[in-house]
Fold:
Amino acid sequence: MLWAFDHPTEHLMHQPFTTITVDEPASGLKTILSFKVPDQRSGKLEVQYLHDYAGISSSIKLTANPIINFSGVVGTNGGGLGTDVSFDTKTGCFTKCNTRLSFCNADLPASLAVNDKGDTLNASYYHTVSPLTDTAVGGEISHSFSTNENTLTVGTQHSLDPLTMLKARVNNFRKARALLQHQWRPRCQPGMLPNIVNVLQVFIQLVIWNCVIFRNEVAFSWITQ
Structure:
């Protein structure tokens, strides 16, 4: 069993933030308690369990009417089943309820998901065409039970070079989106330049453009990040 205390000296609004971790009181189990001083409503208790074929995480805010979060997944290399649920004890209602069933093989993963507390059904697949150029195609069909609306989206990606990726997608509402994604340099090795390693690991989105096709018009909106 390992007890770990973390006391950062600086935190937002100058409130000391403390994390207490109890590592493996039982095999695969971890308990984390975090809170700010003197904010009595900031306390949070999280319990994690990790197994070879399953993982569970549950957290609860230490308040009078807390929100309880639970997520878990079971599966193997060939597929899995997972869920993500949040329950508000004050209102007695679920604020989030998502479930996903996935199937995986070497180059064709697929999944079926129920999101938005059962209102949305999503089915998607992803197929690797060429591992050498990271070329792939994918598709997703989504159905909303509340609006009885179907959305079909297809997309593709292709690596122009080891640092540059081009992605594009279009749906049945004639909305298209393309992304040119570039990484300035290869990712740093662990321990190199710790102050900027997170910056170097982020892919810089050079240009994102959206295209909405109407009857005889094409409208572009450019976004740079």
Summary: The two ends are 45 Å apart (CA to CA).
